[in-house]
Design goal:
D-Maltodextrin-Binding Protein, domain 2, 2 domains, 10 strands, alpha/beta, 3-stranded antiparallel sheet, 5-stranded mixed sheet
Length: 267
């Protein structure tokens, strides 16, 4: 009878992308993987209640550190899957001479051209918390800028529709994410340092679960470090090729395997 392991991920597509890579590793060691997705705070609550065994992933220390600290369950950090960071970005057709930093959004000529709605995702995300603080701290609200909570689709669809119309707008985003695989999005300088810096997307597991996992599996998970570009690419396959997270992960793994084989043949 297969061993069952409960894998949870935050309910955003790029988290599903990295969870799919973990999923495939677990399957190779005979686990039947039960996958569960939930918004940020809800997922950490499930982890704290021991309703999931592994969580993909905790962005530490800035974005999700407070959520993890509230979990009263002993845990182990298994690996750092990638190194995410948040940005406020503008499309590449807005010149750096016009808008180089968040403070430049206060220029009267820039504000006259900008759409004042800064469309975000759900309120539990780090980028949402950071962005609301930035609107106040930079005084952007005095010129009518405002941050709007929404869904992943609200944010991304708004970006693509506005980009197609050559609108001037700001997108609150992060790396890794599939839009970076398709568009050139320039990050604005943020001198107040309110975007949290670079986090580590950490695969965490309950200590109880880790104690039951074989050493070769723990070693393989520790070596699983796909990085930002890989997660953006898998996320792109989910959104643009309309593949499931597992199908997209399999495609990326197959490409990586083929590239490795070519390298061996050349050597």
């Amino acid at each position: 009878m297969p061993k069952v392991i409960r894998l949870g991920h935050i309910d955003l597509s790029f988290h599903a992308a990295s969870a799919a890579l973990v999923h495939r590793v677990l399957e190779r060691y005979g686990y039947e993987v039960e996958v569960r997705a939930a918004p940020h705070e809800a997922m950490f609550k499930l982890f704290g209640e021991r309703q999931i065994d592994l969580l993909v992933s905790a962005w530490l220390p800035a974005s999700h550190g407070a959520y993890l600290a509230a979990c009263e369950v002993p845990y182990t950090c298994l690996t750092v899957l990638y190194q995410p960071y948040c940005i406020w970005g503008v499309p590449d057709y807005i010149s750096v001479e016009d808008v180089a930093s968040v403070a430049d959004l206060l220029k009267r000529d820039v504000a006259a051209l900008m759409n004042r709605r800064i469309q975000g995702i759900n309120p539990g995300a780090g980028i949402s918390r950071f962005s609301k603080a930035m609107v106040r701290a930079y005084g952007l609200d005095s010129l009518g800028y405002y941050f709007a909570d929404g869904t992943e689709a609200d944010c991304f669809n708004r970006f693509e529709a506005s980009y197609a119309r050559n609108e001037w707008f700001v997108v609150p985003l992060w790396h890794p994410q599939y839009l970076h695989h398709s568009y050139s999005i320039r990050a604005l300088d943020e001198p107040l340092g309110l975007l949290g810096g670079t986090d580590e997307a950490t695969l965490i597991a309950t200590r109880e679960q880790v104690q039951s996992m074989p050493e070769p599996l723990l070693a393989e998970l520790a070596a699983l470090r796909p990085g930002n570009a890989a997660i953006s690419e898998i996320d792109f396959l989910i959104h643009r090729a309309k593949r499931s997270a597992l199908e997209a992960a399999d495609h990326w793994l197959e490409l990586r395997c083929n590239e490795g084989s070519k390298g061996e043949r050349r050597s």
